[in-house]
Known about the structure:
The protein is α/β, with parallel strands linked by helices. The protein is globular and about 95 Å long.
Amino acid sequence: MDTLAPRIIVHAGQQRNALSQRLAREVQGEILFSSGDRGRYATDASIYQVDPIGVLVPKTFDDIRIAVDICRELKAPIIARGAGTSQCGQTVGHALILDNSKYLNQIVDLNLDAMTVTVEPGIVLDQLNAALRPHGVWFPVDVSTAAQCTLGGMAGNNSCGSRSIAYGNMVHNVQAIDALLSDGTEGCFQAMAQMLDDTSRLGALVQSLRDIATREHEEIARQVPNVLRRVGGYNLDIFNPQSVRPYTPDNSVNLAHLLVGSEGTLGITRQITLKLSPLPANKVLGVVNFPSLRAAMESAKHIVTLEPTAVELVDHTMITLGLGNPAFAPVIRQALIGEPSALLLVEFAGPSRDAQLHKLDQLADLMGDLGHPGCVVRLPEAHQQQALWGVRKAGLNIMMSMRGDGKPVSFIEDCAVPLEHLADYTSRLTEIFHKHGTSGTWYAHASVGTLHVRPILDMRVDGAEKMRAIAEEASAIVREYKGAYSGEHGDGLVRSEWISWQFGPRLARAFEDIKALFDPAGLMNPGKIVHPPKMDDVSLFRFKPSYQVLPFQPGLDWGAWNVTQNPREQTSGPAGSGNDPAKGFGKAIEMCNNNGHCRKFDAGAMCPSYRVTRDEQHLTRGRANTLRLALSGQMGPNAFVSEEVRRSLDLCVGCKACKRECPTGVDMARMKTEFLYQWQKQHGTTLKDRLIATMPKWAGWAARMPWLFNARDTVPGAAWLSEKLLGFSARRTLPRWRRDTFLSSAPADHHDDADVVLFADTFNNYLESENAHAALTVLSAAGYKVHVARPASHDAERNRPLCCGRTYLSAGLLDEAKKEASRVVSALQPFVARGVPVVGLEPSCLLSLRDEFLVMGLGEDAQALAKQSFLFEEFLAKEHQAGRLNLPLKALPQTRALLHGHCHQKAFDAVRPVQQVLGLVPGLQVQLIESSCCGMAGAFGYEASHFDISMKMAELSLLPAVRSAGPDDLIVADGTSCRHQIVDGAQRQAEHVARVLERALA
Ligand SMILES: Cc1cc2nc3c(=O)[nH]c(=O)nc-3n(C[C@H](O)[C@H](O)[C@H](O)COP(=O)(O)OP(=O)(O)OC[C@H]3O[C@@H](n4cnc5c(N)ncnc54)[C@H](O)[C@@H]3O)c2cc1C
Ligand code: SF4
Ligand code: SF4
């Protein structure tokens, strides 16, 4: 947190206490005032960080009314917030933060005749559009953060979508805003004609606004840039329109448009009425491949003559980083011709598919005329387009996945220049960056001249000085080209200082007059738009020069993040070359740039705990922020192993979805393992955790005396006792032990000439041995000579089966996990050395050979093993693709299989192979259940404290899908805990893919 002078701390502390006590008495919402809670709301997707007074998550708008009254009394500022994805520091400040996203997110009214929808401010754009889709309409301001940003935030920032050339910005699509002002006045801001008769404060306010506008009529025309993309300052030009696209069809004044883009500085939005558009019937996408960035920029002005709905730039950095991301690589590859330096994504939309396809021909012809023949990849199908737009939307985040000290910094990322100057502007900026020893990352809404360029700066070192110098030089060019300094993302802390520069001192004073009319006490989001601080005030930075990571000895190897960086060349040094006192762990945490992509609810699995709780605390971002603040000493001494940090990680199920889906690669599952390791070193482990962790050690006894170990579920009262004494939920049955383990009857002979090694994990060996038998049978039927993995002859515990160590990892017992892992590595080394593939059944076990084993310091043998380890279905699918699989299969009585992928399968892109091998069964239709985590997640769902949340996760999509299955449908799930959750929640027996194939053997 920011260090405040002691005198102010007393004052701030008193204000904080008074505010939290009053709120606790008077509102129903959630009151979050702990240092961890404040820390999680101290940042947005900008470079800033300011400790808020506290956070209120209002349950109703009445809570907000009460909070505003209390804040007025206590002179406490207020910042309304949606998803907190602003890039300029709009939602950061020493204020009471109102998080509207959790409860105030309903559609209030849909009027298809009027083509309007009225919504609460916390509704997420994608969720609104999902609800509108069945009606054939949508809200077309399609910002890149559509999956998480809220309509309240979009209105606050006057957001703009990729298709603004066709639909305009937020201001062009808002019809009315109901708002609450800081003095308690409430009213509907709408067409001025309807407001003038108002005899209350609202009518007087409108009259005063009119007076200001009349006074500044000439100045508005002189100073407000005549470009579509201009979102700085207040939209005073509604009274003398300067936008190239009219604000209203008849140029009449609508006062809602003054609130749009006001960044919460004028009032708090209660509800917004939006204009809807018909869904376009057809869309096609042409991807133009360019040999240079300049060539792309030069072409933009020609391409817009074809009337596309979007023209978006993807630069070389984004292509390269995207190709390095497992989720994005295949999508990008489909759009490339050779090795281009830049792409323009050109979309055409409209009622006629033939007309759109013709546009693609015209695009190809145009590019030929411009000297770039054969450079257009056509993507006429919706699924291809969606995938590529997904990557483009994640563009900024992909840029941010750059490792090392410097990061692309947003401050001139938003300038918009007329299209004819785009190419020159790009080249001149490049020169400026080089002069300052750095380079930029680029992407652009090329159709409207908005260039999202971010120079790479290290804010801890000389970022502030370079930021100022670059901003001044860039702004001079923007002025020369008569462009706008703030073209999309707004002003916030980074650009409010530039308002006077952009609009002149006279209009800047007029903006102050407007603020004073609306918010005389200056309580609403102070310091934004008017009376701003300096953009390079280092005390407001998240990474200020005094920022320090505390020395820390991690248990896992985080060296891959600990690298030096050359910002000019955009290259990084080898693993371990950096100077992170936390040996790379600090740098790994700092990869989270707060963009909020983890708040999504669409396809994909991230982040299941947030999907259920909607709490910032239970979000990948919230966790990364908590860890960063703790590791940098901002949450007090020894905070890393504090209860506050433990709470924020408690509901992380370790699903690894963030590892794959977080665009900057924040791997919270691994971070949780690191945390648990540090935690147990300080606090020890509970009996329950130790029991779970040591399962591989006592499992042999359980198999010898299953009647005893199963007694917990058969003896009355035992389950209750296990909950009271140990914390296992009495509402769960536990897995059943049995005598007939797989390894007790599997072939024990050593095959020197084996084709494949079968690794039977603890769960499939002891609990569901039929899966391991099925895998052995299937592999043998396909003609492979199978060696069943057993401990090496020199293993001190050679009578105890191998185990990947996952149960130890889940308790943070890293040293024990490493011992288990080394046994596996050493037992399999002779086979790996001969190139024999290792095949496993349980996704979380086998895939740890490809993940955790690599960061445990196990050396080259572990690296080699990782390359040769496959899930059973991955191995078969690979063999099939290579034309080597000879598996005789017959049709089953069932014709449909519903497939639930284990989270780790999803994280390693290993669900497709299950679909592929099930597809080999004649006549079997495979339907994938679009699910996030099943909620069981190893031992998580068995714990009494997690039972309810675990079931809620399952109810999000998995259990309803299973319940909708017909009695003859197969339910396939490779994860042991997933199968258990499905039985518990839907009373259906799911099975491992190996068993389905075994039954289908001809
Ligand atoms: C990776 C990335 C890509 C982005 N791409 C785009 C893009 O394509 N186009 C674009 O325009 N922006 C983009 N942005 C910026 C940002 O996502 C948008 O401005 C978004 O609309 C903000 O929504 P939010 O819910 O996160 O709002 P927040 O950041 O929470 O708030 C935004 C502003 O609105 C105010 N506000 C919120 N709720 C209320 C309320 N109830 N009453 C009054 N004021 C309120 C806040 O005080 C703040 O000033 C991007 C950001 C990131 C990180
Ligand atoms: S965890 Fe990843 S997805 Fe979430 S905010 Fe941080 S960088 Fe974005
Ligand atoms: S591992 Fe899963 S639950 Fe944990 S933060 Fe990542 S996505 Fe969320």
